[in-house]
What we know:
By secondary structure, the protein is of the alpha+beta class. The protein has a single domain, classed as Beta-Lactamase (2-Layer Sandwich), CATH 3.30.450. 41% of the residues lie in helices and 19% in strands. The chain is built from four helices and four strands. Helix 1 packs antiparallel against helix 2, helix 1 runs parallel beside helix 3 and helix 2 packs antiparallel against helix 3. The longest helix has 29 residues.
Amino acid sequence: MRRLPTVFLITLPLAGLLWMTLATPRSVSGDKGAEPTKAAVDRSRKTVKMLDDIYKTTVVLITTHYVNDDDDLPAGTAAKALFAAIKKKGWHEVQLLDVTGEPYSDDNVASDDFDKQAVKQIKSGRPYVDRVVSRDGKSYLRAATSIPVVLKKCTMCHENYKHAKPGEAIGLLSYTVPIE
Length: 180
């Protein structure tokens, strides 16, 4: 039997903390289409690092405390539900992507140029990569962070991770964060 309520007891407070942090009013700088300032890009990088800590801590806590057998909701599934809710509210986008070549699902495969390049760089050992991009006249920070196997429990769902070396990336989180 799935323990959805228990998993969300830990996920919801963390999502609330994330919302309170991101809901702080910020001024939007400059004209649309203008190059973002170095300070604005640096703020976005800091935001990505904070989000990365929150999301990865959430997955580790869920896995540690609530994933005990094959019938339990996988932490990655809970994280993807959280990512979808955050995107729907218009905050930012984040995707869980595979770097092993053996994705858990087709949704975990890099599909655009930034993500494909990030997979190569993360797989080669870089823990973080980013690029400023423009979409519809607005600037965004595209960033990717390494995901290593940190718990033996991860291999319950991902048999192929048993062969990963300590610290080796098996995935990445890909972020698209508005630069303000």
